[in-house]
Amino acid sequence: MKWLYHISRVIFGGWWVYSGTMPFIDPAWQPLGQEQAAIDFSLAMIDSGLMTWVKVAEIALGLLILANRAMPFAVVAVAPINFVIVYWNFVLDEGVIEYVFGALTIAFNVVMAWPWRHYLYPLLTLNGAPDYSLKP
């Protein structure tokens, strides 16, 4: 499992750094999709400026994942962006390549989260007690 974790981490982290960096190097690089819904969605994110923030987050999180640092945080932080990526690939821009990328996104996230599951389980607490102290 250890080798699968590290391979997934390096591929996923590199993928995110590349995907986050390329639109700053060549703005025409950003894929918009083939279906009208995907194109409209992508253009709305670009026009609103949200895509820039997403790309900055992709770079930062990709670097954390490549460095294998703050992984519980990184695994949780990539989840909302990955939700949108999976939705875009399975719903907005359907096709074999899109399905493969959507499935890989899910697989890489599961593999990367699994070794850190003991840190993530407390996030599922239903009836916790807040700690209002100022102690760390």
What do these coordinates show?
- The chain has 136 residues and is an all-alpha fold.
- 73% of the residues lie in helices and 0% in strands.
- The protein has one domain (2-117).
- The chain contains 6 helices and no strands.
- Helix 1 (2-25) packs across helix 5 and helix 3 (50-67) packs across helix 4 (71-92).
- The longest helix is centred in the N-terminal third of the chain and has 24 residues, at 2-25.
- It is globular.
Brief characterization of the structure:
Helix content is 73%, strand content 0%. The chain has helices spanning 2-25, 36-48, 50-67, 71-92, 96-113, 117-120.
Terminal CA distance reads: 34 Å
Strand content: under 5%
Mean pLDDT: 94
Number of strands: 0
List the uncertain runs: none
SSE blueprint:
Elements: H1 2-25, H2 36-48, H3 50-67, H4 71-92, H5 96-113, H6 117-120
Protein traits:
mainly alpha; 6 helices
